[in-house]
Amino acid sequence: MRTISAGRFEAQCLELHDEVAEAGETIVVTKRRKPAAKIEAIEKLLSLEGNVVYLVSGEELVAPIDEVWRAEVE
Prior knowledge:
By secondary structure, the protein is of the alpha+beta class. The protein has a domain at 1-42: YefM-like fold (3-Layer(aba) Sandwich), CATH 3.40.1620.10. It is built from two helices and three strands, in the order βαββα.
């Protein structure tokens, strides 16, 4: 785990962000030589595709409803 000062982090924030994202490393940012923050890459988010169950058919899901909708204007 790498440690850098807050001043250096501020000056190189975007570059360090890219390094963490690419290498998956963690950087601890210090302020007055004490840990203040930790920068780490996040895991790839899982897709929700295939996790939804529709309780109606696809045709029914997109079919128009037979009700007129009127917006109230104040």
